[in-house]
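User: Hey, my collaborator sent me this sequence without any context and asked if I could get a structure. I don't really work with proteins. Can you help?
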Amino acid sequence: MHANKRILWISFSLLMMFTLSAFAALPENEKCMNCHGQREIKSIAGNNVYIDPAKFVATTHAIVGCASCHDRVSSDHPGDGSAPTRATCGDCHGPIFDEYSKSLHGSKARCNDCHNPHDVKLPVIMSGDEINGKCAKCHDTRKTLQNHAKWLPQAELHIDSLLCITCHTGSKDYVITMSIESRQPGSKDVFKSATYEELATLSKMEDIGRLIDLNGDNLVSLEELRVFNHHLRGKNMRLWGMMTPEIVTHSYQILENRWDCSFCHASGPKAMQKSFLAFPQKKGGYTRLAVEKGAILDILYGTPDFYMLGSTRSTPLNIVGALIVIAGLSFPLGHGFFRLLTRKNRKEDDHEA
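Assistant: No problem. I've predicted the 3D structure and written it out in structure-token form, which is a compact way to encode the shape of the chain:
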């Protein structure tokens, strides 16, 4: 009980700290956005320096404020003709910067090649498509499929069900993150993450989470999943699960144990049952609702388009299955063995005949 109170107090303190920081940074941010929030704004060099205010306000960088990274903007800006200074990512994110510098990507891409500092989001509020889309900026999807197909069975299905960072970083604590996807017009098998507008049309309410969380308790039950899946079948939509890390690292590498199928497929029924359902938000980003444990085990109604062999295995069923196989083999083997033992008798009968 005391530990829970301490966690709640720490969480509340952090929330208050960030809230106060946001209020302190807000006036300065608004001053910058008066100009940089205009789509047509250009720098002296003619480059577009527009920043989407709706996207920026949802970032953690908005909390610390524009001046934290651009701390030497003169009072005459932009009339002074000088470009504002910019902080480096390592100034604030030192440990991550050091980790990334030692990775395979460290010498090939800068931080802002993947992360727009004015639209940066935590991984938990991004869709799998968004995260993998950052990798696809440099790694051609067709070549990625071809390279993986050389050793990975059903490579396309695997890549659709995993984030690149699930296999190519030392991230930890994997969960299943489900999202709602809609079939693209004119296609049979091409699905993309459903937009807020699409889901709002279905739910007819602003809180699209109530589309599945019918009782509004912020927990999606298996029964609610069954009802929702039945509702989706006639809407050209599906519920799609991806194995995602909860703790993301920047140690991009090729890990030997990811070549072993057992990394994902021999975890047993107690592992990777923790799952969430991600919903797009009106102003960008995603929010997650926890799903009752066992969703990925309920193949028919829970998550019918996601199946992880191994994680859904059951020891009693394995034993029953093995007994069935043994029983099936025993008949032909027993028959053959019996004929082997009686071959002399059969030869003598043939001679007498």
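In plain terms: Strands lie at 172-183, 191-193, 219-220, 237-247, 275-280, 286-291. You can pass these tokens on to your collaborator as they are.
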